[in-house]
Amino acid sequence: MSALVPLNLPRFDIRVRRDDDSRRGGLEVFDQLRGRWVALTPEEWVRQHFVNFLITQRGFPRMLMANEVSLTFNSMARRADTMVYTRALKPLCIVEYKAPDVAVTQKVFDQIARYNSVIEAPCLIVSNGLHHYCCRYTPEGYTFLPDIPHYSELLY
To answer: Among the residues of 40-105, which ranges form H helices?
Structure first.
């Protein structure tokens, strides 16, 4: 399947199975944050690898992360791909994923910035699995960071 392309993220023992019972008959991946099997799309492949990277390489606490978080923007229901919270359960970081063949463009950043106008998280991350971008948000604007920081570096 084209979803299983190598990414610019550490490899790990990802749980994948064939979904013979569904009408789609496709592959599924186990989402450790949602605790259930979900359809394995190219974007989901990126999400699962990036979540693993945040937990194992950047010290993000699994219990303070959630996938597919509902939010309302301009009276319309939207979903943030991944949300990370502080220990006080305030939004700390929004992560937006794209499939590896989708370029990370200004349009992608505009999307996550719109979500953040509601959430006001101090950190935004965008990844297509090959290229990862992180910026810090303050009321004065956005500042791009050279790398994805450790969880403890985001707390201030």
So the answer is: 42-58
Q: Could you tell me if residue 46 is inside a domain?
A: yes
Check residue 64 and report its DSSP letter.
G
Q: What CA–CA distance (Å, rounded) separates 96 from 124?
A: 8
Domains identified in the chain, total number: 1
DSSP lists the bridge partners of residue 76 as 73
Quick check: 148 and 132 in contact, CB under 8 A?
yes
pLDDT over threshold 60, residue 1:
no
Q: Supply the CATH number for residue 130's domain.
A: 3.90.1570.30
Mean pLDDT of 95-107: 95
Residue-number span of the structural domain to which 117 is assigned: 42-146
- Give the number of C-alpha atoms closer than 13 A to the C-alpha of residue 87, restricted to the C-beta side: 4
